[in-house]
Each structure stands twice: as C-alpha cells, then as structure tokens.
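Summary for the steering committee. The consortium agreed at its last meeting that each partner would contribute one worked example illustrating the joint modelling workflow. Our contribution is presented below. We chose a case with several input lines so that the handling of multiple components could be demonstrated. No manual editing was applied between input and output; the record is shown as generated.
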Amino acid sequence: MGYLLKIWQLRHFWLALVRIDLKNRYRRAVIGMGWSLLHPILMTVVLSVVFGTFFGVRDVKYFAPYVLSGLVFWNYISANCMQGCHCFFQGESYIRQHPAPLAIYPLRTMLGAGFHFLLGLAVVLVVVWCINGFGNLPHLIDLVPAFVLLFFFGWSLAILLGVANVMFQDCQHLIEVLLQMLFYLTPVFYPREMLQQRHVEWIANVNPLAVMLELIRMPVLDGKTPSLSCYGIGLLVTCIAVGAAVGTLVRLERRLIFYL
Amino acid sequence: MQLIELQDVGLLFRVRRLGRISFKEYLLNGLFRYSKKNCFEVQALEHINLSVEEGARLGIIGPNGAGKSTLLKLLAGIYPPTTGAHRVVGRVSSLFDISLGFEMEASGWDNIKYRGYLQGETPRSIQSKTKAIAEFSDLGQFLDMPVRYYSAGMRVRLAFSIATAIEPEILLVDEVLQAGDQNFQVKAEQRIKNLISSARVVVVVSHSLESLKGLCDRVLWLDQGRMQMLGPAEEVIAAYLKTKNPPTKAIPAPDDQRKAA
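What follows is the complete predicted structure of the assembly.
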C-alpha cells in the first residue's frame, strides 16, 4: 500500500512523461494522432479485401470492425511487451538519481499504449455505430471491468518484460518471436469461425489473449455481455500476471540498479 | 537527533566479466554455474559505521575509487547495502549525476517541470519556482529549445538550477558539480553555500581539501571502501595529506563517477 501511495504521489512526474512520449511521437507528423490510427485502419482495409475476396468472408460489414478491434487490441499488448522491454533503460538516468518506485517506468509505457488503445477503440465504435446503429450503447458499460483488467495486465507485462530485458538483453528478440506466434494463435485478423470449421476452436478457448479480446469485442461488436466465465478467465490471467510482477518487484526492485 | 545512521554497512558489486549476458548464454552455461564464474566482485564499501546528527556538515575524502560516490548514493537510497543496516530520516536532496536525466526532445521549460515533479513538487508549487530556476540558469531563450541541442555546460547549468531550487533537509553533494563557465561557477558556489547553511545535514564529497576545511566540521577518509579515519576536519585532512600527498587543488574525478555507476 505504501508503495502504491508513493506511485500516486509521483503522478505528476509519470503523467508528464506519458504526455511527452505522446507529443514526441506526433511532433513530426503532419496529421498528428492520425498516424497511430492510420496503420490499423489500412491493415483493416487490406485484410477485409483479402478475406472478402479469397476466403469467402461475405459479411465485410461485420468483418471490418472485427479486424480493426483485433488489431487495436493487439497493438496494445505488443506495445506493452516490446516497449516494456526498454522501459527501465529509458528511465535509467532517473533511476540513477532518485529512489522512486520502479513501477512508474512500466506504468509510463502502459499508459502510452493505453492511450492509443482507447483512441483506436473510439474509431471502432464510430465504425460500428455507422454500420449497425447504436444498439451496443447499453452494453458499453461492460467494457469497464475489461479496461480495469487490461490496465493491470498491461502494466504487469511491461514490468515483467522490463525486468527480464534488464537481466538478459536478448529477451526482446525472444519476445518478438513469441509475439509473432501468439499473433497467429489469437483470432485477431481471422474470423473465429475459421477455427471452428477446422475443429481447432480450443486454441481460442485456452488462449488467454483471445479471451481478453472477446471481453472487448462482445460488447462493442455484438452488443452482448460477455459470459461470466470469460471475465473469470480474464481475472485469473490478470491476477497471475500481477502476482508475478509484484513478486519480481519485491525480489528485484532494490537490486535492479546493479544490472542496469 | 541522528538523521543518518549506518551500522556495519557493506556494499558488494557483482560485475559481469563480459558485460551483459544473454538469456541464451545463461541457459547454455547451466542455470547457476555461470553466476560464480563469470562475475568478479568488488567490495565497494565495507564495515562503514557512521552516525550523523542534526546540524552536522560531513566531508568525505579519499583517492579515486575509494567508494565516496558510492557511499553518497547509498545514503540517497539509490544503492541498497548488501550487508548491515542503514537509516536515513528526512527529505534527501542529492546533487550528483545531475546532467543526466533529461527528456532530450522536450524543451528546457518542460524539463524544469519533470525534474521538479520527480523531486516531489506539484504543478502549483513548481509554477512559482520555474521563473527563479530559469533566471538562475541564465539560459534565456534557449529554454524554448529541446534539451537535445544544449551544450554539456548548458545542461549542467539547467540541471544545477533545478536541483538546487529546493529546501533540502539532507543534502548530498558530489563535487563533480564544478562545471559551467566562470560566471556560473561563482554563482553556483554561492548557491551551494546557502544550501549548506540551510540544510539540516550536509554530506559533501570533494577532492578540494581546502574548501572542505571551510565547509565541514567532520571529515571521513575512505580508502578502498573502508573507513580510514573519521574525526575533526583539520585533523583528518592533515593525516590524509601526510600519507597520500594528494593534489590539493580541485580536480574533477570522472573516473570516480564511472566506478560508482
């Protein structure tokens, strides 16, 4: 608790860092924030065309926001992993000067990624509203627990991989490969039914990332409340990640500076 | 009241022989065997017993690599001791490595805010100080520029101005501060003297023995991480001069800094 309080007391510091990160990213871009959205939107267009023409996905109206929400979600996860790897190096000069709680540096990474996630989700919502009308509005409240889970899940990921990368420099390459694998194992850009048709639906059922993605997609795309078991799995996975992150910090928080 | 207390404190650095190792190597070398073989150990501090009471001004002297800067960082809470117990009561402000820790892409103004926040300021409290900091740094319109384009001297000036714009309880100073041009040098020295007189406890690391005599009432002489002598400033400095015959003029010791890092 004291630790969380310290983090809260330094909120001006890490919030300012998040702001500068966002500002830097868009400073040289003419269309500013559009850039971070343009990438998933273009990918969506490409994938919709490809799947619509070659794989016989007929319902492009449903498929486009489906892919976009998947990519937005995936970008959040992979940003937490890849940028999380660098979070302590990024904050190294602060760490060397001031004994602030180390968790604020992964928090900086996560909040930056989270900002883009929310921005992307807003676009998804607009697309869904344009296509299907406002039927999903009453179910958007179901996103709140999902956001809470994703907040802690992303933060924990960044902490774990940040520490891992300080200890072993090649972690980021391993993570890159692992992420690529997970990307194909998660129904991010292909319809879930494709797994069903090939009787490998269990892949999506045991993959916690797929479950988390469902927590976002169900309310937004289908206007349904995700089942309790979905929330249960999400909560369980988040708790495991948080537990691992807390354990790592308890063990290594003070000593991490020796490895930087 | 004792504000700083160290009991038999030791600090052991494990340095990897080949720099950082990769996860692959770690697995290949067998899970735990490498850790003994591939590291060599540096006992940076050993059996340090120190208690500093309210109002004390302590100087730390010693040759390069004696552990002076390391001790300072330990007091600041950046390095944890590997053995022994330490207790530091009060708000610590440290003046070392100050030219690091800028957001390179952000302007000088923004960096004043970030540093201030890190030192525990709030948006409101920093606002009233920003102008004074800017004035003291003498950077003028350069403050609108990203810090990336600053010269080394300008960075130090900005960092120093921010770091000293606080009311410290425990002040830790490393002498590497002596940077910037002549004009700034004079101002900086005056500012440090003011800080030293207002802080409750001051610990200074310096090679400039003459100025230590003026600043400190007690001096700790470190050698190879051990306490050689602790006592009244004049006495310790005289003994130190007798055995070592070190330079009496201020010589910045970048070497020392590296070691600590």
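Chain A has 13 helices and no strands. Chain A has a mean pLDDT of 88.
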